[in-house]
Amino acid sequence: MASNSFQGEFDAVVIGAGNGGLTAAATLAGKGMKTLLLEQHNLPGGFATSFVRGRFEFEPSLHEISDFGPFEDKGNVRKLLEDRIGLDLEWIRVPEAYRLIIPNEIDGRLDAVMPFGIEEFISKLEGYVPGSRPSVTRFIDLCTEVVNALGYIADSKGNADKKILMDRYSNFLKTAPYSLQDVLDSLKMPYRAQKIVTAYWCYIGQGVDDMSFTIFGAMFQRYLTKAAYLPKYRSHGYSSALDIKIRELGGEIQYNTNVEKILVENGKVVGVETSSGDKIKTNYVVSNASPHIVYNQLIHPKTEVPAVAYKTCNARKVGFSAFVVYLGLDKSPEELGINEYSYFIYSTPDTNDIYKGFNTLARPIGQAAVCLNNAIPDCSPAGTAILSITTLFSGDCWAGVEPKDYFNVKNRITEEVIDEFEKALGIKIRDSIEEIEAATPATFANYTRAFNGSIYGYEPVPWDSILPRLMCLNDEKYIKGLEFAGGFAVRCHGYSSSLQSGELAGLLSYKSFKEAKSI
Amino acid sequence: MKNEKLNIKIRPLGFLDLLAFKKLIPTREKMIACAPATPVDAIPPVNILAGRLHPETQYLEVSEVTQDTPSARTIRLITDKASATKELAMFRPGQYLSFSFEIEDASVTRPYSISSSPAEALKGFYEVTIKKNEGGFVTNYIWENWKLGTKVICSGPQGHFYYDALRDSRKIVGIAGGCGITPFRSMAKSVLDGSLDVELTIFYGSNIINDVIYQKELKHFEEASNGRIKVINVLAGEDAGDCERGFITAELIKKYVDPAECSFFICGPQAMYDFVGKELGTLDIRSKFIRWELFGEIKNVSSTNGFPQNMAGRSFNMTVHMGSTVNVIPALSGESLLVAMERAKLSPPSICRSGVCGYCRSLLVKGDVFIPESGDGRRQADKQFGYIHPCSSFPVSDLEIIVPRKR
Fold this sequence. Notes:
The structure holds two protein chains of two kinds.
Chain A: E1 12-15, H1 19-30, E2 35-38, E3 51-53, E4 56-58, E5 65-66, H2 76-84, E6 91-93, E7 98-102, E8 110-114, H3 118-128, H4 133-155, H5 162-168, H6 170-175, H7 180-186, H8 191-197, H9 201-204, H10 213-226, E9 228-231, H11 234-248, E10 252-254, E11 259-265, E12 268-274, E13 279-281, E14 285-287, H12 291-298, E15 299-300, H13 307-315, E16 321-329, H14 333-336, E17 342-346, H15 351-357, E18 366-371, E19 385-393, H16 403-425, E20 433-439, H17 441-448, H18 466-471, E21 482-484, H19 495-518
Parallel strand pairs in A: 1-2, 1-14, 2-10, 7-17, 11-15, 14-21
Antiparallel strand pairs in A: 3-4, 5-9, 6-9, 7-8, 11-12, 12-13, 16-19, 16-20, 17-18, 18-19
Helix pairs in contact in A: 1-11, 1-19, 3-4, 4-10, 7-10
Chain B: H1 14-22, H2 24-34, H3 45-53, E1 58-69, E2 72-79, E3 96-103, E4 106-113, H4 118-123, E5 126-131, H5 137-145, E6 151-154, E7 171-177, H6 182-192, E8 199-206, H7 215-224, E9 229-235, E10 244-245, H8 250-256, E11 263-267, H9 270-281, E12 290-292, E13 315-322, E14 325-332, H10 337-343, E15 362-366, E16 369-370, H11 380-385, E17 387-388, E18 394-395, E19 399-403
Parallel strand pairs in B: 7-8, 7-11, 8-9, 9-10, 11-12, 13-19
Antiparallel strand pairs in B: 1-2, 1-6, 2-5, 3-4, 3-6, 13-14, 15-17, 15-19, 16-18
């Protein structure tokens, strides 16, 4: 075997340096545990990275980080990264919540630019949809209760007092079993207001009829109250800062190192083996790789995987992958007529139709676009602009694509996505393309090795949303010493959830580690 | 209004909602209990597709060697039947492969453009055309060792030097020097087979007519193309036939095409880039219409703009952390850190060797390096945190770096 392999012992091994793996490793190393972070790619970040083409450095997947907040009023993610991990980076506030364009909405084109801030949002919406104020106010109050309740549950570390929950957070409990659409209907919110309020739905990657209200409500409220932020030098900026911090804290990082086996004996983690010949003893693994990969591919021997672990995987649905077009344009956003940072463009009104559309290779009918310069003006040279347009696909609908046809499929969808954007805004951008790149589900699978190229974790349906996952945290530990971080973990997916889930996994591992030591 | 207690009811009777909440966990338990306890052994389709498009390693075998000119050979490669490689990865005309070599116990890589077409890859072969350099460590090795049946290892297709219909003009001007003709052969073949819908005009600079690679073949392409392919040979060192004499100047380009309606693709040696860059500069072309192929390692770094002259010809100590090992090796100021590591037989990772792809990205812990501007393809944050690309970094002090192992 290679002579530069590791044969020693670590207190904890973290598999994967994505959002969750990075914060897990920083948390473990920060607690003084001898920590090894292994990443199959040659960069940190997973989806939180960047790439350079010509004069442009592109952000591959991040649109914005929610629950971040300004320095004076930090949200949970800023508290984690700055106060607990100690990063010192420049973060930039995104100018508006979003511009939503639904050209063929029932009753005519819907085109609304929505601000952050509860009162600002409600007032602007009242302007677009007179009479919406009462129901939207009630909706946001309800979302606030969700956030407070989740905060209480998180603080109670799995020992929430049922009486307190019933007394203070009864609306939270009552809405937890329902979908976003159920809750909107019960509030009798005007149709067009519903459409504007739910624009963020595609960030969760599920139609409003199936999406857990809890998960949407929490996200939406954090967006309104804490706005959204971006790292100055793309996600790679904070991923690299976390890499440096982990090393400063005494952690070891090995890139290009693929974990092939998690060794388990008698239901307990005992080690890890890698493609580089490393044989590492450890009793604590935090996996940023999904349970699907861990239980189906990594646990060794296979007889150590309990039946219930397979059942839990199979009961859930792995979320969508994405298709992203990255454009470096040789005109400024003003010259091009791109005035907002964030766009949601839905070519058909019904989110369930769009959701279904994500399951075919037909022309995409829903997209989220961001023009980075409208948040970070100097992110590209003067007189240029960076635009990225994202649509979603299930991994399975790419199953029939043969490599010989791949570039044609990719080029066709790229052009369709650009076309939809141009039509919705009534502008022309294709004459200004200086750099162009498209990432398909295969691209994401290639760089991150995510299961079926998924950019999300398991779909957060009501029975598998953050609340039931948190409530079952202790019951669903199938292998001792193994915790999960990232989009497939208890906090569900998204940048802010994944970052926070890594800390939680790190703290849980540390707790077990300390308990084992004290015995 | 503000103080009015919110009381949400989803169903007509609120207590039913609480009942639904109480059922949340039992529902979850039921969903899990009802699911099959079978492992998902099959690799998911997208991961399979990714593996076919982007194989980490391709195991190939030489099936034919053609002597193009006294100093250039085209080598045909097929899959090594005894290996795990069952098909050749698809590519776009203009992409390259990074080949791995074990020469005198040292692991090194070299990038070579694919000179055959994607349609030929589907038929089962790639071709690369390699020019023998005087004193070239690797080309000499290939010359002596790559024979019929030789097993060869390379990466999946790499690079971004290819036509994009949304970005580029349909009128492509290829400017090639020496072995830089190879990607244009792939493009020309694709124009002929109909898979690449462009008009291709190639200006090919050589010294003398006997240096012109694919001379007859390119002529044949031109004749068979119905006017879609035009090849202009430009000889610096002699007059010959219908070749142009001199260099590829702006004047010469204008003689054959209207620069205002073309996309320019340039591939050749460093000296040609300097010359052609200046010539194109006089034509006032938007940068989106000019695309440069990477030219590999920077030679004569000490003559590069900004190189600290007192550092020329110096040797330093470089401490290299790789995996569990630490080695102190010599590093010359005139050679990249990558070459220093290869000489020391450390097997560092590399693909493009031009500072762009970032595959060799390493953390500079101590010391200073010189990075020529033209070879600095780093991410902004990497500049902030001291990450460097060893293939385009040159030592100007003793230094210490952390390098990832090869995958």
